[in-house]
Amino acid sequence: xxxxxxxxxxxxxxxxxxxxxxxxxxxxxxxxxxxxxxxxxxxxxxxxxxxxxxxxxxxxxxxxxxxxxxxxxxxxxxxxxxxxxxxxxxxxxxxxxxxxxxxxxxxxxxxxxxxxxxxxxxxxxxxxxxxxxxxxxxxxxxxxxxxxxxxxxxxxxxxxxxxxxxxxxxxxxxxxxxxxxxxxxxxxxxxxxxxxxxxxxxxxxxxxxxxxxxxxxxxxxxxxxxxxxxxxxxxxxxxxxxxxxxxxxxxxxxxxxxxxxxxxxxxxxxxxxxxxxxxxxxxxxxxxxxxxxxxxxxxxxxxxxxxxxxxxxxxxxxxxxxxxxxxxxxxxxxxxxxxxxxxxxxxxxxxxxxx
Length: 355
What we know:
By secondary structure, the protein is an alpha/beta fold. The chain has 13 helices and 12 strands. The protein has a single domain, classed as Divalent-metal-dependent TIM barrel enzymes (TIM Barrel), CATH 3.20.20.
């Protein structure tokens, strides 16, 4: 198991690499190129520069998140083949510089939805939350609220160039149901997995966030059945899952522990996002501190299931609170994620030393 930390690059992240290097047990960076629009090839020179910068700090770059999938691929438009070829070239370019896992998603329009980026907890810290009352707003209103709460930071999956035409994008999906989106996903994954197998890269799809339909948009990565179908449509170790414990648990009907056990045993989880959530009522929740007692998930049990079923991939602490006066990109401050990483490493050490 390798513990890694998401970082957006020196131009887009206020956290210096040397600070991340000081987190005990942190082995690597989950990197990305923020300035490459979806559908374009990631240039080798930029990948090389990112890798050299990270390795100079004493960390590794083996995981990339996210190589965004162009909406034309999700919609199944005639132009998708061009974007798929670009995606395959990006996979080759990343593999050339040692990348082993690519995290991505297949969510239409929005990569994730939260209704509050500054939800205040009793201790005064702030976190991200989802309350269904907020979804009664229009998509445009939610985008405006999110932008107003994000400060000067661009949020992953909410890039302005993607969302400026949000109404038109939602309209474009009016004839795309879950069945059609599955067909479009199958077309995409069947096209890229041979390239992944050739160069030794594992694709790791992120669950829908939340794992049910919002604004009438289709969802195909929302439960155990969907994950099984994804792993079956192309039966290859290169076709895997980023198992996000927070996202999959946002639907209380999902048994996150059973899902973790099954797909770890099947060797289909090369990457895990491990975070805790706290249900407020029904499906409303906020993103809690990692400690089990602070949320609705048993984090010891999550790590135990991964450990005891032979997990040997990458883990990153996911979505921390803003604490101790820190400001920055919501969910991606330094302090709380560092605490979360230390906690998860402590649980893993305890599991390793059990008699």
